[in-house]
Structure formats: structure tokens, C-alpha cells
Amino acid sequence: MRVVQMLESEEIVKRLVAMRGTKIDDRDVKFYRQIAKNLTGPKSGMGVLMCIQRAIADHVQQDGYPVFMSAVLQFCIPDCINALIDDEEVKAEAMDCLKEIKS
Q1: What does the CA dihedral 27, 10, 17, 77 come to, rounded to 10 degrees?
Q2: Where are the alpha helices (DSSP H) in 1-103?
Q3: Which residues lie closer than 8 Å to 44 by C-beta, 6 or more apart?
Q4: Would you list the domain boundaries of the chain?
Q5: Are residues 35 and 12 in contact, defined by beta-carbon separation less than 8 angstroms?
Q6: Consecutive sets of 10 residues in the chain, 103 residues long: mean pLDDT of each?
Q7: Contact, 102 vs 56, CB < 8 A?
């Protein structure tokens, strides 16, 4: 299992904002900051996936969103992985783990 050092928090937020490519509001930025907070230090592909999923759970719970929003936000995970992991091997591991979870 390969591990990579994650980006600095501000770079994570910057990449996630760029990934979205549409109008961004304060709730989006807050969510992206939660992802950045979780993604510190070295991570494997599975570790990145777990951190993104934890950020989704925290965001939905802390902001009082309906539970179904967690499922809606799950759709952004592949885009987040592509935006945040430069290493192709680690990116592939994260995507493979996501496919296993969904099956």
C-alpha cells in the first residue's frame, strides 16, 4: 500500500473549489475546509477515501442537513479523489476502494 503526503489545507480547498467549476457558496467552502482538516499528513488511497467520507458525515451532522444529503454528497467523492491525489497508484487504490464500498 503506497502512501503520499497530502497537500496543504489551502491547496486542498483551492483544488476542490476549482473542481466544482460553478458558483460556490459559504457552505461549499465550509465542507471543503472539513475535508482539508481531515486530510493531514501521509495517507493511502483508502485513507483519503475514509477522510472524505468522514468529512461528509461531519458536514451533514454539524450543519443539520437531512440524512439523505450524505448520499447526495457521496457522488462528489470520485471528483474529490481526482482533484486531490496526484499519484496515480494511490488514486487508483482510492477509486478501487470506493468501487468495493458501492458494490
Answers
A1: -80
A2: 9-20, 26-38, 45-62, 68-74, 77-84, 88-102
A3: 1, 2, 3, 90, 93
A4: 4-102
A5: yes
A6: 94 94 85 95 96 95 89 94 97 96 85
A7: no
Contacts (Cβ under 8 Å, ≥6 apart) of 67: 60
Task: State the alpha helices, DSSP H only, in 21-44.
Answer: 26-38
Torsion sign over Cα 24, 25, 29, 35: negative
Exposure b/e, 78-103, CB count within 10 A at least 16 = b: eebbebbbeeeebbebbbebbeeeee
Identity of residue 21? G
pTM, two decimals, is 0.92
- Phi, psi (5° rounding) for residue 21? 65, 10
